[in-house]
Write a structure and sequence with these properties.
- By secondary structure, the protein is of the alpha/beta class.
- It has 2 domains: 139 residues, Rossmann fold (3-Layer(aba) Sandwich), CATH 3.40.50; 138 residues, 3-Layer(aba) Sandwich (Rossmann fold), CATH 3.40.50.
- Helices cover 36% and strands 24% of the residues.
- Strands 2-1-3-5-6-4 form a 6-stranded mixed β-sheet, with helices on both faces. Strands 9-8-7-10-11-12 form a 6-stranded parallel β-sheet, sandwiched between helices.
- Helix 1 packs across helix 9, helix 5 crosses helix 6 and helix 5 crosses helix 9.
- The longest helix has 16 residues.
- The protein starts with 5 loop residues before the first strand and ends with a helix.
């Protein structure tokens, strides 16, 4: 492939740690769909140097960044302009520079997750009773998109009750009720959708749910984490009789597709990329 097919500018995903990121593989696959190449790298950035590193990246001709843990709130604070999605989340996983040289921030996580649930998995969120586990930045980033899907209610349950209550209070004016509290809230009603937004899946652990959680007849369980096999939460959901369980690999690919489109103007096909990643993961087991 000649250099004429190389997309102009540099792109990267930044985080700490970052070595296991699939983003370079994903964006390379997106570019190849239209016969192009992309200079997209995973960059380990020091905890004390994030702002300086990002500023220098754009000053030296960088075109776009994805941002992962632990820098999403700092990316939001660094930007000159923020999208409504980023403002609602108070965090950004996407950075770019406009024609005036201003840094703009967006958050594609929520759209990525909901697209994976509804478009890829065929789940319906409309009128659903949704239980979300965790009250950190990952959960805050997806609640706006969950609300747009018109569920009956969203309940945020967390190990620390006060944190979940504070998070839910940010959406007190929504027509869809959002409430928060301890994991005991998981016993409040049967659930149509349960989302694990904690980091337990990354450490092969299960959220501290009490016994007796009731899943509705057509309940779906979604773990925002992903790995080489089912997470403990996914296994729990299957054991409880969930209609389907799903990990967050599709969310990763869909949020990346949204970023790719924001930078370059065309929306890539996500299904072939997801299929290839899952085949590779299964082969590596």
């Amino acid at each position: 492939m000649t250099s004429d097919h190389l997309i102009s500018g540099r792109f990267a995903v930044v985080g700490n740690p970052i070595q296991h990121s699939l983003s370079p593989v994903i964006h390379s696959a997106f570019a190849q769909q239209s016969g192009r190449q992309i200079d997209y790298r995973a960059e380990l950035v020091g905890l004390d140097t994030f702002e300086t590193w990002v500023t220098t990246f754009f000053q030296q001709g960088g075109r776009g960044l994805n941002v992962t843990l632990p820098f999403k709130t700092r990316a939001y604070a660094l930007a000159d302009e923020v999208s409504d999605r980023a403002r609602a989340a108070g965090a950004a996983n996407f950075l770019a520079q406009n024609a005036a040289g201003q840094m703009i921030a967006d958050n594609t996580d929520g759209k990525g997750m909901v697209a994976d649930m509804t478009d890829n998995a065929g789940w319906s969120l409309n009128g659903a009773r949704v239980l979300v586990l965790g009250a950190g930045g990952a959960v805050k980033g997806v609640i706006p998109s969950l609300l747009q899907a018109a569920p009956e209610c969203i309940v945020v349950a967390n190990r620390t009750s006060a944190r979940a209550e504070a998070l839910a209070a940010e959406w007190i004016d929504q027509s869809t009720p959002v409430s928060g509290g301890s994991y005991d809230l998981a016993l409040a009603m049967p659930w149509d959708v349960i989302v694990n937004g904690t980091s337990t899946g990354l450490s092969n652990e299960m959220p501290g749910l009490p016994a007796g959680v009731i899943l509705a007849d057509d309940c779906y369980c979604y773990d925002m984490a992903y790995g080489k096999g089912p997470t403990p939460f996914m296994s729990w959901g299957a054991d409880q009789g969930a209609t389907a369980v799903r990990d967050g690999l599709g969310m990763l690919v869909e949020q990346a597709a949204e970023s790719f489109c924001l930078w370059l103007g065309d929306y890539p096909e996500t299904q072939p990329v997801m299929s290839a990643l899952r085949e590779h993961s299964q082969a590596a087991r």
